[in-house]
Amino acid sequence: MIKKFLSVLMLITVVGACTKETPYEASRRHYKAGLTYVRERNLSKAILAFDYATQLYPGFNEPYYQLGLIYAEMGGVDNAIKYFTIFLSREPEHSDTKHRLLRLYYLSGRAEETIEIAADILTETPDHLETHRMLGDVYLFKLKDLDAAKFHFMKVLKVTPDDPEIFMKLARIAYLEGDAEGVNDCCCRVLAIQPKNIEPYMLLLKLYKDRGQKREQIGIYEKLIALRPKELKYRIRLAELLFEFQELEQAKVQAQEIKRKDPTDPLSSYILGYIYLQEQDYDSAKEEFEEALAGKYKSIESLISLGKIYRKREQWDEALKTYFNLSFTRP
Known about the structure:
By secondary structure, this protein is mainly alpha-helical. It has helices at residues 2-18, 23-39, 43-56, 62-74, 77-90, 95-107, 111-124, 129-142, 146-159, 164-176, 180-193, 199-210, 214-227, 232-244, 248-261, 266-278, 282-294, 299-312, 316-326.
């Protein structure tokens, strides 16, 4: 297919030569053929046509722009940058190409190039929001320059004061700066706009874990369970915290729900065993502690509790066996 296409190109060139076509005219003819292929969505032929146009008359700039567009669409970032750069070097005021190059540099993680071309764009349009967004991201995630990142994000907020994405990024900056109040404020602003957004809760949870604020974590896990009821890990951690604070009724509810979804979960078995033991439901407690042991969760505590159950029932042989097993159990 490609050979046939090249033959056609050569035929066009020969015909052009016979009619004394100038290199520029021949280049434009192949350029127009390339545009036709683009409209037909035959991008491989379009690339060949535009590339041939640049060979026939390198000074003709439009084919480079079209090649940049095609490669950008196809995900060929390096080639797209190459052709857009050639085009921009000849038409340095071409705004569309600057913006396309900015996005390509940004998406490919080229921080220095992103900053350089963004500065050029902001000289012309100081309040271009997308440019400030990208610069904020580059300074935050690539260069870790929190002040510069904050500067550009605040530029965006001046124009779009209810932007949850920007508030979330400002919350991350506040977290990195150790500003707990700032984290809380920005996360609350995000949740006021997007109540079902899980990101603010995850960042607040991270903050509370860092600061050892376990009581505050309980409220976050309750919110996460409401938003992601199928995520068992949030319910498990909530049950663990409730148990730690000896809020046994609530811990029992969570542990029973965990067991309903995952009967083999050892943590919920241990919690339920402990609660049933307090309630003097020894049969249920024994069953749960045995399951906790099978899952190798709190083995020593589970064995001690089983020993208590056997003593309460006056099953002395079983109690002795259980306490004997303790000597071979690693903490």
